[in-house]
Amino acid sequence: MRTVRIGNGCGFWGDNVDAPMRLATAVELDYLTLEYLAELTMSILALQKQRDPSAGYATDFPPVLYQLAMRLSRLPGGMGRFPRAITNAGGMNPHACAEKARQALREAGVSRRFGVVSGDDLMPQLDNLLAAGHSLTNLDTGEPLTTVRDRVVSANAYLGACPIVEALKQGAEVVVTGRVADASLTVGPAVYELGWSWEDWDRLAGATVAGHLIECGAQVTGGLWCNWREVQDWADVGYPYVDLAEDGSFEIASANPAACGVNRETLSEQLLYEVGDPARYLTPDVVADFTSVAVQDSSRRSMWVRGARGLAATDSYKVSIAYRNGFTSSGTLTVAGPDAVAKAQLAGEALLRRLDYKYERSNVECIGVGACAPGIIHGEPAEIVLRVTVYDARRDMVERFTKEFAPLVTSGPPGITGYTTGRPPVREVFAYWPALIAKSAVEPQVDILA
């Protein structure tokens, strides 16, 4: 059977910037995907674009592409090994991202045809959509978006693989998108290369499973693995790739199989990551049934996956909306010596009581004595970290809170240290608003940069 090899070298903005280069130099790929976006990331990018119209994308991508080109040019086969790249690094500004990435490749002496996928950003027509009856009701609370409309900073539909395929058909060698579903970065090249139709539900489901498994990078090759002691090389865990066959089955492996590879446990942990109903995993391309998937050892450090089943996709896109929702600050101090826990609790409570204001939410934690897992850790430690956090709609009161940590050094119990890094920062809170919108109301757009 025909196969296409797709590897993913990034699981989020902030992931290892050397991983794409290590993956593409260790394994000859047909396609390299890079997944940068999360719900919070979109709101951050939206604010960046408000301040600077040329910003609003994952700035790691252009230098990663440059590094990859420079490295591959020195290997046997040279730039003939340069894979087609598909990434959602475009965020809120895919055209600017593509232009910057194209410039980075030119500086490396490389020319590639870029495709840009946009249309996911609903902010320019948000009021028109609401007026037309698209209420964008919160899926969790049932509230209409109008209740927070004046505080919305970003609203993006999760597009599917269709515009990616269109970009590839038009000759794109690098495809830069805004918000698309994570797995669609893999579904797109699979459909294009293997000639599937948009009603090959089982094959689309197989590619969706493959995309879901590799979308978080090293999480499927040993990262967060329950048997973490068995990973042989944490410095280079190895990022994943799949050999996806025309029937929708695939083999999944690691670029550094000596470190860990992929086994039944690492695969199963990632397969169930961020999944609500495993029998109905909803994507813009297909409704995938993860419960039908069968896995078996292909080699000592890779797995075969087959048997995925799919149903027709829904007529809606998921929409990720972020809105301003107050301010927060969190500060820490180290408390050492006898009775560290009692001293920390006293200091945290005193800090809040010194402020003549009741915050909407506050929290005093003793990290090291069970704050993360209450009831699990027992015994009196010789030192702990005190963390105090507040949240409120009034920024000035949160700022006032940040000034109460250093005074505890001389006006609190003995043993307090760790105050030399300055006052904790005040951060604006962006709340998440999940919604649906009819696909008919969204128009994906594909542009090829000449």
List the helices and strands and how they pair.
Layout: E1 3-8, H1 19-26, E2 31-34, H2 39-51, H3 61-72, E3 84-87, H4 94-107, E4 114-118, H5 126-131, E5 152-157, H6 162-169, E6 174-177, H7 184-194, H8 201-214, E7 240-245, E8 250-254, H9 264-271, E9 281-282, E10 287-289, E11 294-299, E12 302-306, E13 309-311, E14 316-336, H10 340-353, E15 361-367, E16 383-392, H11 395-401, H12 408-411, E17 416-417, E18 427-438, E19 445-449
Parallel strand pairs: 1-2, 2-3, 3-6, 4-6
Antiparallel strand pairs: 1-7, 4-19, 5-14, 7-8, 8-12, 9-10, 10-13, 11-12, 14-16, 14-17, 14-18, 15-16
Compose a concise summary of this entry:
The protein is of the alpha+beta class.
